[in-house]
Amino acid sequence: MKKLLLALVVAVGALQMSGQENQIKRIPGVGSDPNQSQYTTYERGVWLAAEVLGGYSCHFSGHNMAVAEVDVTVGYRINEFFKLGVGTGVRRYAWQHDLRSGNLAWGMPIFATVRGNLMPGLYRRTVPYYGIEVGGSIKDGFMIRPSVGVRIGEPRQAFTLALSYMGQDIKSYSESREKSYRYTSFVCLRLGYEF
Fold this sequence. Notes:
Layout: H1 2-23, E1 45-57, E2 66-79, E3 82-94, E4 106-117, E5 126-138, E6 142-153, E7 158-173, E8 179-194
Antiparallel strand pairs: 1-2, 1-8, 2-3, 3-4, 4-5, 5-6, 6-7, 7-8
């Protein structure tokens, strides 16, 4: 039994090491990479992103509400560490009757964004990235949304998965049932595709 267990551990270890060796992407020497001369063709240029976002507000007392959103962003990529863009989307609130004034559960965010990789992505398929969106939402007010996530794919075509904090001024009711703005924090998960 011990010999069988030892043989199994050795076989799994050998397979693991073999798989890791096949996954290593070696950095080529100067002039030996056919894509090296084409690197500047995708360093700058227009970029697009489509994303789906879902989240929940963070009130520790009282009512909370959920939010779902679909966004489209277009911008200019200066390099892989810095991209500028503008975006808009459609937002839907759920369980919002005690927090937001009015019966309309829809919103439309409009924002400017800055994004970029946190490390070089030329020889990596998975790269961490950051994003900051600042703008507002029609029927509500000011919005800020920083994000941290991962890009999975090629430098110019990748799926994105991120965790976001969203701060949004919500048009709500005050204690005397008068309309006012209330700053509300949301924790959101977002999934998208960039190219």
